[in-house]
């Protein structure tokens, strides 16, 4: 049974699939103080939050069993994603569940700002009739600067066009082609500042975007510009905004989000031309149901079928790609396990080459799988696909990926090279149509070995009788040989044998083999994901 903790007001209807699932129990408590969350979090496999709960490094450090942190919404700035990644916890969100609601809120705020609707409502309900005081401005034929042309920025731009506004869009990823398709102008920040009557921000809050709208930017804006922020507090420097409102340079601001929610910079609320809402962008019935469904399905998929759709700290791969890559993921893990056992040391450098059909594929998950397989040898079960790359970098190790058109005669090929000082271990592998996974290269030797659970690697002098002697020692110790592959560079020179065995051999058996004349090295290799011939003799890809 998987235990899920919900600490924010996430919609219950949207959580139905989780509530009703026989493998999940859900505890929902929106009143938990951070200290208490820290104390109980070790009991849970998954945590669901909106933006109220601050999922800090401290909470994450106590989350001994947590596999998933799910954000029922978009912004993950309330979650210490780095700490989660380090601990191997997947962070997922609902990237599109509240797009329309946030878009409509932005439009509502822009219209309210231009026509002083909240102020006029207040005045009128107070018994006044102040028609002159609340004269507004039209959106018609005005210029709207949209900073951040992602999902919400794009939807805002489309709707603002219905008001016949000219749209300037700024986003590092906005191409001329997309801008022209949308019927907007691609602009720089300076061009937006200089030409816009309204400016709306729709970027995430990251290091790069903190105080994007600051004193210097505001100084470049048109007099009487109006600002809208329904994205994140902190994108606008509230003190700089206040000063520009005081001076009359900025004609008004509509704010749904604030730097230190729920606190609002003193003075902003006293400005008659500032309208505010308490972070309501996503607060519609529809959006709340959608985001809760999204995270429920995501959690169920992660635990039940290992598939991930919207991870923040994992590469995104479609189900189709994941399906195609599945045999390679298994092979990658096996290659990593063989390589690291043969190196029997922490590598200094890792080289991975993908060739043949693999050069066309998204191999990011495969790379992670290989790195995970390597690190697990020394770091154990704390390594997973989420934290593998992070842990590698933390160890000061580098990895290098090469995509090579030369496929060594196989339709697909992957090769791992592990380096430690002057030692180098090379393992090459391929999926062979009709035969399945094969290890096809060990260091400089070409071989053809199925990656089974129990392998025996032997390096020896190429002298007569060696195969017989090894076979006889194994036979005497009741160890059946599945297959045996030999490789040599020259007659009488150095040679290798790779055997698949039906069971693991004891150390004394290995020692016996090692004592044979001409024997140079022997290593038993155990593959946790290796084929077990008895369980699946005919599983081929
Ligand atoms: N008020 C609310 O309740 C509410 C609801 C939903 C989303 N949001 C917030 O709205 C924002 C946008 O959400 P979205 O779903 O459109 O995200 P998105 O990821 O689809 O779009 C964000 C865009 O910002 C762009 N960007 C990043 N850095 C930039 C920079 N320096 N300058 C210009 N553009 C930059 C990205 O390229 C991307 O296209 C997020 O901060 C999200 O948290 C708020
Ligand atoms: O990033 C988001 O999705 C919005 O800020 C909504 O946040 P909420 O779920 O806390 O309303």
Automatic annotation (TrEMBL):
<keyword id="KW-0560">Oxidoreductase</keyword>
<dbReference type="InterPro" id="IPR045865">
    <property type="entry name" value="ACT-like_dom_sf"/>
</dbReference>
<feature type="domain" description="ACT">
    <location>
        <begin position="455"/>
        <end position="530"/>
    </location>
</feature>
<dbReference type="Pfam" id="PF19304">
    <property type="entry name" value="PGDH_inter"/>
</dbReference>
<dbReference type="Pfam" id="PF00389">
    <property type="entry name" value="2-Hacid_dh"/>
</dbReference>
<keyword id="KW-0718">Serine biosynthesis</keyword>
<keyword id="KW-0520">NAD</keyword>
<comment type="similarity">
    <text>Belongs to the D-isomer specific 2-hydroxyacid dehydrogenase family.</text>
</comment>
<dbReference type="Pfam" id="PF02826">
    <property type="entry name" value="2-Hacid_dh_C"/>
</dbReference>
<dbReference type="InterPro" id="IPR045626">
    <property type="entry name" value="PGDH_ASB_dom"/>
</dbReference>
<dbReference type="InterPro" id="IPR006140">
    <property type="entry name" value="D-isomer_DH_NAD-bd"/>
</dbReference>
<dbReference type="GO" id="GO:0051287">
    <property type="term" value="F:NAD binding"/>
</dbReference>
<keyword id="KW-0028">Amino-acid biosynthesis</keyword>
<dbReference type="Pfam" id="PF01842">
    <property type="entry name" value="ACT"/>
</dbReference>
<dbReference type="GO" id="GO:0004617">
    <property type="term" value="F:phosphoglycerate dehydrogenase activity"/>
</dbReference>
<dbReference type="InterPro" id="IPR006236">
    <property type="entry name" value="PGDH"/>
</dbReference>
<comment type="function">
    <text>Catalyzes the reversible oxidation of 3-phospho-D-glycerate to 3-phosphonooxypyruvate, the first step of the phosphorylated L-serine biosynthesis pathway. Also catalyzes the reversible oxidation of 2-hydroxyglutarate to 2-oxoglutarate.</text>
</comment>
<dbReference type="InterPro" id="IPR029753">
    <property type="entry name" value="D-isomer_DH_CS"/>
</dbReference>
<dbReference type="InterPro" id="IPR002912">
    <property type="entry name" value="ACT_dom"/>
</dbReference>
<dbReference type="InterPro" id="IPR029752">
    <property type="entry name" value="D-isomer_DH_CS1"/>
</dbReference>
<dbReference type="InterPro" id="IPR036291">
    <property type="entry name" value="NAD(P)-bd_dom_sf"/>
</dbReference>
<protein>
    <recommendedName>
        <fullName>D-3-phosphoglycerate dehydrogenase</fullName>
        <ecNumber>1.1.1.95</ecNumber>
    </recommendedName>
</protein>
<dbReference type="InterPro" id="IPR029009">
    <property type="entry name" value="ASB_dom_sf"/>
</dbReference>
<comment type="pathway">
    <text>Amino-acid biosynthesis; L-serine biosynthesis; L-serine from 3-phospho-D-glycerate: step 1/3.</text>
</comment>
<dbReference type="InterPro" id="IPR006139">
    <property type="entry name" value="D-isomer_2_OHA_DH_cat_dom"/>
</dbReference>
<dbReference type="GO" id="GO:0006564">
    <property type="term" value="P:L-serine biosynthetic process"/>
</dbReference>
């Amino acid at each position: 049974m998987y235990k899920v903790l919900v600490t924010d007001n996430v919609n219950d209807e949207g959580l139905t699939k989780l509530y009703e699932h026989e493998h999940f129990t859900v505890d929902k408590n929106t009143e938990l103080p951070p200290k208490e969350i820290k104390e109980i979090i070790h009991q849970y496999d998954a945590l669901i939050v909106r933006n109220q709960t601050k999922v800090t490094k401290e909470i994450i450090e106590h989350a001994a069993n947590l596999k998933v942190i799910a954000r029922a919404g978009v912004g993950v700035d309330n979650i210490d994603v780095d700490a989660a990644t380090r601990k191997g916890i997947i962070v997922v969100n609902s990237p599109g569940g509240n797009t329309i609601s946030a878009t409509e809120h932005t439009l509502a705020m822009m219209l309210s700002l231009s026509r002083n609707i909240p102020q006029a409502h207040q005045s009128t309900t107070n018994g006044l009739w102040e028609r002159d005081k609340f004269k507004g401005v039209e959106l018609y034929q005005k210029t709207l600067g949209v900073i951040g042309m992602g999902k919400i920025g794009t939807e805002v731009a489309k709707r603002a066009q219905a008001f016949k506004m000219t749209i300037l869009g700024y986003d590092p990823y906005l191409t001329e082609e997309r801008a022209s398709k949308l019927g907007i102008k691609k602009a720089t920040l300076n061009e937006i500042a200089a030409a816009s009557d309204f400016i709306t921000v729709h970027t995430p809050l990251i290091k790069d975007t903190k105080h994007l709208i600051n004193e210097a930017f505001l100084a470049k804006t048109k007099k009487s510009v109006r600002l809208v922020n329904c994205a994140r507090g902190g994108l606008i420097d509230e003190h700089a905004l206040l000063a520009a409102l005081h001076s009359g340079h900025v004609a008004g601001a509509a704010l749904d989000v604030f730097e230190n929610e729920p606190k609002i910079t003193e003075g902003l609320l006293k400005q008659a031309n500032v309208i505010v809402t308490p972070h309501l962008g996503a607060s519609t019935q529809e959006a709340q149901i959608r985001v809760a469904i999204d995270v429920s399905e995501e959690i169920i998929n992660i635990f039940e079928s290992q598939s991930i759709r919207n991870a923040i700290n994992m590469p995104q791969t479609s189900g189709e790609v994941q399906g195609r890559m599945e045999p390679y993921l298994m092979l990658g893990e096996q290659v990593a396990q063989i390589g690291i056992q043969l190196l029997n040391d922490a590598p200094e450098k890792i080289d991975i080459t993908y060739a043949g059909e693999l050069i066309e594929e998204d191999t990011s998950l495969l790379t992670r799988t290989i790195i995970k397989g390597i690190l697990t040898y020394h770091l154990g079960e704390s390594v997973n696909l989420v934290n593998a790359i992070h842990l590698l970098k933390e160890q000061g190790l580098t990895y290098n990926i090469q995509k090579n058109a030369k496929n060594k005669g196989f339709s697909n090929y992957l090769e791992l090279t592990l380096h430690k000082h002057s030692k180098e271990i090379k393992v090459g592998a391929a999926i062979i149509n009709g035969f399945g996974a094969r290890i096809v290269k060990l260091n400089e030797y070409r071989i053809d070995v199925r990656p089974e659970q129990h392998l025996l690697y032997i390096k020896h002098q190429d002298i007569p009788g060696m195969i017989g002697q090894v076979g006889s020692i194994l036979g005497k110790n009741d160890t059946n040989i599945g297959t045996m592959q030999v490789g040599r560079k020259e007659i009488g020179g150095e040679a290798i044998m790779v055997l698949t065995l039906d069971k693991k051999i004891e150390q004394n058996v290995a020692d016996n083999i090692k004592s044979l004349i001409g024997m140079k090295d022997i290593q038993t290799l155990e593959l946790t994901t290796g084929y077990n011939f008895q369980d699946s003799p005919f599983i081929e890809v």
